[in-house]
Amino acid sequence: MGADQAGGADATDDVGAEGDVSGADGVSGEDGAGRGAPEDLPGARRPAGYRRSTGSRRGEARRRELLERVTEDLAVHGLVGFSLRRAARAAGTTHKVLLYHFDGSDDLLRQATLRLRARRIDNALAAATGGPGARSLADRVRAIWPVLMGAESGLRVLDQAIGLALYDPERYGELVRDASQQYLPSLLSLCPAQWAEQRRKEVAEMILAVLRGFLVHWLTSGDTTGVDAGLEALARALEREEAAAG
C-alpha cells in the first residue's frame, strides 16, 4: 500500500505484500488462542512474519499519531464494538497499516487504555495537589474521588476495562494489572515523604484497592450515599495513620 487514507504517501505505512490478513476485525470466529471471540471484543493479531515498524523517528511519530486517533475514538465510543477495522476507520487508515505499527487489536487497545489512564492520573494529581497550603493525605484522597466519578469524555472506558478483565482474565487481565502499575507511583507520591517506604507502599495499595472497590460499587449500584460514607471512613483511617506516624 503506497499511502493510507490519512493523506500522502508514507514509507512507514507501506506494509508490503506479505499476504492478506484474514479475520482482522477480531469481531467473529476464533481468536489466536482458539476461543470464540465475542462480536464486541477485540481479537485480531498480527500474523507471523508480518512486517513491523522499525522504530525510526518517522515511524515512531506516525505510530503516535495513529494511536492518538484511536485513543480519541475509544474515549468517545468505548470498548463495545472495538475492533481493528473500527480503529483503522478512526485513524483514517487501513488495518494493515495498524498491523505494521502494532501487534494487533489487543496491543492497540492496551496502548490506548494506557493513554486514557494517564489522563485520569494527571487530572487526579492536579486535584489532589492543587490549591493553597499543604493538604493532608486524607484531604488529597477526598479531592481525587470527584475526578474518578467525573464524566469527562473517555475516562469511563477505563471502568469498562475492569469488566473486560473479569470476563476474560487470561486475555485481558493485563489491562487491570497495568492500572496498578500506573496508579501506584502517583499514590506513593501523595503519601508523606517522611514515612518509611514500606508504610507508604502499604497505604498506597490500600487507597488504590478501596477507591477501585468504591468505583465498581458506584457504577454497578448508583449508591452515592453509601460510597460517600465509605470514603469518609477511609479518610478517617488515613488521618489516624498520619497521626500515628507523627
Automatic annotation (TrEMBL):
Domain of life per record: Bacteria
The ranges the UniProt entry gives for DNA binding are 83-102
- Region Disordered, annotated ranges: 1-63
Specify residue ranges for compositional bias: Low complexity.
Answer: 1-10
Boundaries of each HTH tetR-type domain copy?
A: 60-120
Q: What are the protein's UniProt keywords?
A: DNA-binding
> What's the protein here called?
TetR/AcrR family transcriptional regulator
